[in-house]
Here is the input.
Amino acid sequence: MSCIQTIQDYALRSIGLGERLLPKSDFTLCQQFTLIGSGMIWNIYFGALALIIGFFIASAVAMGKDARTPWLRKPAEWFIFVFRGSPLFIQFFFAYFLFLKLKQVGVMPWLTSAQAGALVVLILNTAAYSGEIFFGALRAVPRGDLEAADAYGITGWTRFRRITWPTMLRLAWPAYTNEAIFLFHATTLVFLSGFPIWKQKGDALYYAKYFADQTFNPFVPYPILAGYFILLTLAVIGLYGMINKRLNRHLPQEKRRRIRIRPNLIR
Here is the structure.
């Protein structure tokens, strides 16, 4: 089988299109690259949707934590504390068994699938971490900007929309970029959690483990998996870098904060 034929058969297998059966023997590099790359579709799905939905939840949580009224501030504080204070892996297991109980009583049975239940956990987790980042940036908005807005008669929602929120995003964006990278890496935990894989439609780690188990050689599929995530990380840095440039477009060139690649050797 040629590599072109392999790509045609397995490139979209993770979403149910193409060849139904996995290769059983005589594994080639093309098969491993193609199937692991196919599984990345699910990792991108989990990460992208969690970031988009979690972004708006995080903004609301940050505003809630900054509120003066306790009935808004306390729930936001506890939400951040619970999801930042407990391991993501435990959150996956706890959520799966909770959703399983809901399914038994006939409530939202679709949440027991990885595509839905695991996504909910990732959304809430990134919302908690991002909410804390946004809260710190919200408290760091220069008072001079707010006083200038008051002097021009810009108050209330208009001041928040035009002054406070854009400044908060500009200050938080470098740290938020790191959260986005960590979130995409965390999508590999979906395979290891209690959420089941349906009809062998797994993520990239699922296929990497399949080849490692079949060949008894983890030094080919796992580096391929790592390579895909490195490319994904570079794509995230590039996209978030363009957004960061847009947020800082009004500042002098020497004062613009750039996003640089700084790998953490120890996290």
